[in-house]
Write a structure and sequence with these properties.
By secondary structure, this protein is of the alpha/beta class. The chain has helices at about 40-50, 75-80, 95-105, 110-125, 140-150, 170-185, 195-205, and strands at about 1-10, 15-25, 30-35, 55-60, 65, 80-85, 160, 190-195, 205-210, 215-220. The protein has two domains: about 1-80 and about 155-225, P-loop containing nucleotide triphosphate hydrolases (Rossmann fold, 3-Layer(aba) Sandwich); about 90-155, no CATH class. The strands form two sheets. Strands 6-7-8-3-9-10 form a six-stranded mixed β-sheet, sandwiched between helices. A four-stranded antiparallel β-sheet has the order 2-1-4-5, with helices on one face. Bound molecules: adenosine-5'-triphosphate (ATP). Homodimer. Forms a membrane-associated complex with FtsX. GO terms for molecular function: ATP binding; ATP hydrolysis activity; transmembrane transporter activity.
């Protein structure tokens, strides 16, 4: 489902963010990507979204080498991969309903289907009653649930989550993890970059640890790892 062969990424300023990464994630897996700040986690996520190009190597999503895909075909890749970020990234001038509907409109879903599907996705994330609210009228956890609803609206086989619980209090973070777990239970492959030690240690899923751009550990039912210092929170 996700396969990286000898992938390296050096940014234009000479920073080598990833070096010779080999990785294979199968359909339906839930994988945590852990590592200190600056280890290369977000870079890996950006390569999978084709927001950045690798300097070397091949990246396969669903058997397709996305490094060979032309830029105008990028929307096709994005249909196969939903994404959630720490800072939610909802459209502030659109309601909850419209945020989800918009994600479907831009990939050409007919309006009749959008009208049918948005309510069921809202019910899945337990936000039916907030359908007409704007993002700034929602709590952080609710905003993240909308972001997840939007990410799965087009039924992508893969969901990437870049620190999805980073801005949430512990109880709300666990709610989000329950939701992601349920989505994974439905067959969606999930790759989640995180600093949430307790979550990783409790869930016991596959853990891939990166340090200075290199995979240093890949464990089934792994833990967060004592080698990684806790991030200091400045907010
Ligand atoms: N656009 C860029 N240009 C140059 N260097 C970059 C760029 N983006 C990231 N880097 C560098 O690449 C390295 C990896 O960064 P990356 O954001 O992937 O780390 P991370 O593991 O996601 O960190 P964090 O946990 O703090 O989000 C760091 O040294 C960072 O400074």
């Amino acid at each position: 489902m996700i396969k990286l062969i000898n992938v390296s990424k050096e940014y234009k300023n000479g920073v080598k963010a990833l070096s010779n990464i080999d990785l294979n994630i199968k359909k339906g897996e839930f994988v945590y990507l852990v590592g200190s700040s600056g280890a290369g986690k977000s870079t890996l996520v950006k390569l999978l979204l084709k927001e950045e190009e690798p300097t070397e190597g091949q990246i396969y999503l669903n058997q397709m080498d996305i490094t060979k895909v032309r830029n105008r075909k990028v929307p096709y890749i994005r249909r196969n991969i939903g994404v959630v970020f720490q800072d939610f990234r909802l459209l502030p001038n659109k309601t909850v309903y419209e945020n989800i509907a918009f994600a479907m409109e831009i990939v050409g879903v007919p309006s009749k289907e959008i009208r049918r599907k948005v309510p069921s996705i809202l019910s899945l994330v337990d936000l039916s009653r907030k359908s007409s609210s704007f993002p700034d009228q929602l709590s952080g956890g609710e905003q993240q649930r909308v972001a997840i609803a939007r990410a799965i609206a087009n039924n992508p086989p893969i969901l990437l989550a870049d620190e999805p619980t980073g801005n949430l209090d512990p109880d709300t973070a666990w709610e989000i993890m329950k939701l992601l777990s349920d989505i994974n239970g439905g067959g969606t492959t999930i790759l989640m970059a995180t600093h949430a030690r307790e979550i990783v240690n409790t869930m016991r899923k596959r853990v891939i640890a990166i340090q200075e751009g290199v995979i240093v550990r890949d464990e089934e039912k792994g833990g967060y790892g004592d080698e990684i210092p806790d991030v200091q929170k400045y907010y």
